[in-house]
Specification:
globular; 49% strand; 132 residues; mainly beta; Nitroimidazol reductase NimA-like FMN-containing flavoprotein (Pyridoxamine 5'-phosphate oxidase superfamily) (chains A, B); Pyridox_Oxase-rel (chains A, B); Pnp Oxidase, Chain A; six-stranded antiparallel barrel; homodimer
Chain lengths: 132, 132
C-alpha cells in the first residue's frame, strides 16, 4: 500500500520491528506553548517505548501529556530510507517493582550522577513509511 | 558552557554550520491538535531553512504555523553526538522570482509527478547540544 506521495505504508508489525532494532529516537512535546523535539535513548517494551531521562532534563515536562515519537534512517540522496512515528500518552514509572524491570532494559546512559526517570510512551497511533 | 545534564551548549554559529552540512531533518508541527513529526529534505538559506515538499504531503498543514525543526547525529552508545533544534514561523514561498532562486538550492527529491512546494522556516530560536 502506498500513501499520497508514493511512499510505502508500513504495517504496525513492521513499525514495531524497526522500533525494536533502534535505540535513539526523538521525543516531540510542547514546552510553554512551543513545539519541542529532543533526542532520547529508548527501548521497545511490548507495545510501549521506554525512555531513560536524567533528572534536570527538559524532556521531563512531557510527563502526563500526549507526545509524538519518531525514528528514521534515510539516505541523503533519498535512494532508500524509512521512518516510524508514534503518538501517545506519556507516564512516569515510579513504583519500585516496575522500575527494577525497566532498569534491565538496554538503555544507554552517560554518567551524570543524577537520578534517572523512566517514562513510558504508549504507542496509541503507530505509522511508518518506506521509500519503495 | 554546559547545560543542566552536562551537555555542551552550541553557539548559534555552530548550529548554523551543522545545518549547512546536513540535508535531512525533522519537522515538528500540530495536525488536528496532535503532535506530528515528519522527516523532510532541507537546505540552509542564510538564517532560514528551506523545505521542498510535494503536493499532497501531510507536512503542508504546517504552513503559517510555528514549528520545530531538528537534526542530529548520535552514536548508539552515546560516545559522541550532537543535535540542533530550531523553532520558528513557516511560510510558503510562491512568487516566481523567489521560487527560481530556491529551486537552485541542493534539495533532493524523488520523482513524483507533482508540484513541489517550498516552505521557509525562520530560525527564530536556535539551540544545539553536543556530547562533550
Amino acid at each position: 500500500m502506498y500513501d499520497s506521495v508514493g511512499l510505502e505504508v508500513l504495517s504496525r508489525q513492521e513499525c514495531l520491528e524497526l522500533l525494536g532494532a533502534s535505540s535513539i529516537g526523538r521525543l516531540v512535546f510542547t514546552d510553554r506553548a512551543l513545539p519541542m523535539v529532543h533526542p532520547v535513548v529508548f527501548a521497545l517494551d511490548g507495545e510501549s517505548v521506554v525512555l531513560r531521562v536524567p533528572e534536570g532534563s527538559a524532556t521531563l515536562v512531557a510527563r502526563d501529556t500526549i507526545v509524538a515519537f519518531e525514528i528514521d534512517e534515510i539516505e541523503k540522496d533519498l535512494s532508500r530510507g524509512w521512518s516510524v512515528m508514534a503518538v501517545g500518552h506519556v507516564t512516569e514509572v515510579d513504583d519500585e517493582a516496575s522500575l527494577e524491570r525497566l532498569r534491565a532494559l538496554p538503555l544507554a546512559s552517560r554518567p551524570h550522577g543524577r537520578v534517572d526517570h523512566y517514562l513510558v510512551v504508549e504507542l496509541e497511533v503507530l505509522t511508518g513509511r518506506r521509500i519503495p
